[in-house]
Amino acid sequence: MLEIRRVVKTFKNAAGEFTVLKGVDLQIASGEFVSIVGKSGSGKSTLLNMMTGIDRPTSGQVIVNGQDLYTALDESQRSRWRGKNLGIVFQFFQLLPMLSLLENVMLPMDYAGVYDFDERPRRAMKLLEMVGVAEQASKLPLAVSTGQQQLAAIARALACDPPLIVADEPTGNLDSRTADVVIQIFERLVAEGKTIIMVTHNPSLTARTTRNIIISDGEIVDETIARALPLLNHRQMLQVTKRIQRRTYQPGQTILQRDEHVDTFFIIEQGEVEIVLQGRNRQDVTVARLGPAEYFGEVELIRGGKALAVVRAAPEAPVQLLTLPREEFLTLLEASPLTREAIGRIVQSRIEQNRSIDRRGKTWWPFKEIQKPE
Ligand code: ADP
Ligand code: MG
To answer: What is the CATH number of domain 2-220?
Structure first.
């Protein structure tokens, strides 16, 4: 649905040049409900403006629904394209104050010339009903509550039935009850097949989207790292993003040998790995499976030991790993006490389980998240 390739945006002013987006790559599939978060000034609105065609990138490409917005369209073509293909919702609604809510919702249809002339008021009314403000249809924006204005603005964004809706802090100016109504409407639209991209500051809303993107200082944090190490701050996540290296393993391929010296922290990006021990009769026993955003190697890195088990790619599919050298991993733990504590707890429980099972004379069991083998 959306592809952003190496987008750079630089603003020039009297003080000089200021690069707000530093080579952003992003792909969003049809039907996703995506939230974008980041500190104030990190470039969220600028990024949305690139997606909507409101502002143009200094370099790079933006392709929405197969249409290259900047190299293939001129300004007026872009604005016509936007009217039919994109619904935009702003923090401060931006309804026209001299038009009723109904007229505000009809406006994009008039502008784009879609739907029959007679059909437009009926469709506008239906949309106002859908968002729950039909009773206010003939009122001017300032005669209704801020929540109702935003609901009408959402109806307006839906006027031309666009496949993609882009919203910049749509609930930033609303009380939590109305914010919840807005998100419920978005959830319903996503269920009906729309794609929604929403900037928000509210963590209780990001939890309800299907994907969360973090932007820090004009760059996008790797999503696997954000999921695996959620207690890092955004800047630390970005540092890790820049330092990781990717490694691919074929199905069944060994990643770590038992007793091998471990000098890398591993995060799974794609696929699954098996943790394999030698059971009685020297047979391989798969004791655990780890999947995307889970990690391994941390026990060995923290204790400075050798690999406790064999780790190998699961037999079904290749595995893509993100790797971080030991030094960087330890530096990171020093910089983030919360992450150190969280990982420390995992290490502790993996070791304790190992011991308690050892004492009972069985194979040790360091991975508590996964079901025990038969
Ligand atoms: P966010 O939405 O994440 O708070 P913005 O994308 O609005 O951040 O802004 C990112 C940075 O770009 C800010 O430092 C802002 O001052 C600067 N900026 C945004 N728009 C312009 C502009 N038109 N001219 C100059 N600087 C701008
Ligand atoms: Mg903003």
So the answer is: 3.40.50.300
CATH code for 245-359?
2.60.120.10
Cα 314 from Cα 330, distance rounded (Å) = 28
Q: How far is the CA of 46 from the centre of ligand 1 (A)?
A: 6
Q: Which residue has the tokens 């038009």?
A: 99
Q: How many angstroms is it from 160 CA to the middle of ligand 1?
A: 29
The pLDDT of residue 210 is above 60: yes
pTM for the model: 0.87
Q: So where are the chain's domains? A: 2-220, 245-359
Q: Whose CA is nearest to atom 26 of ligand 1?
A: 11
Determine what percent of the chain is predicted with pLDDT higher than 90. 66
Which of the two residues, 68 and 373, has the higher pLDDT score? Answer: 68
State which ligand 1 atom lies nearest to the alpha carbon of 55.
Answer: 23
Beta bridge partners of 370: none
The string of pLDDT tens digits covering residues 122-150 is 999 999 999 999 999 999 999 999 999 99
Helix axes 75-85, 101-112, angle to 10 degrees: 130
Nearest listed ligand to the Cα of residue 19: 1
